[in-house]
Amino acid sequence: VNTILDEILNNKEVVLNVSDLRNKNEMLYEHCMNVCVIATSIGAYIFDTKKLKDLTLGALLHDFGLMFVPEEILDKPDKLSPEE
Fold it and tell me: What is the distance between the alpha carbons of residues 12 and 44, in angstroms, rounded to a whole number?
């Protein structure tokens, strides 16, 4: 969080390359990173450093629970069934 926050505060035009950073699900990981960068970029104009760190952490972890959803459900192109 501090690294992302420092990068954004030092260069508000920063574009983080997250394509090489993979976790269980690349698209989910990239989504979380993108939400984090966008939220922090906007928050930098609104919050003090303490609140900005909280926002950055919250944005980074906002979909953390999806890590426990099986990939076949996460990647399913169709609608989910009632069981899913």
Answer: 9
Q: What is the pLDDT of residues 40-73, one digit of tens each?
A: 999 999 999 889 988 988 888 787 777 778 888 8
Instruction: State the distance between the two ends of the chain, measured CA to CA, in whole angstroms.
Output: 33
Phi-psi region of 16 (alpha: psi -120 to 50; beta: other; left: phi over 0): beta
Rounded Cα–Cα distance for residues 32 and 65 (Å): 12
Q: What 3-state DSSP class applies to 76?
A: coil
User: What single-letter amino acid sits at 78?
Assistant: D
Distance CA 26, CA 71 (A): 11
| pTM for the predicted model, two decimal places | 0.65
**Which ranges in 1-84 belong to alpha helices (H)?**
2-10, 26-43, 49-61, 71-74
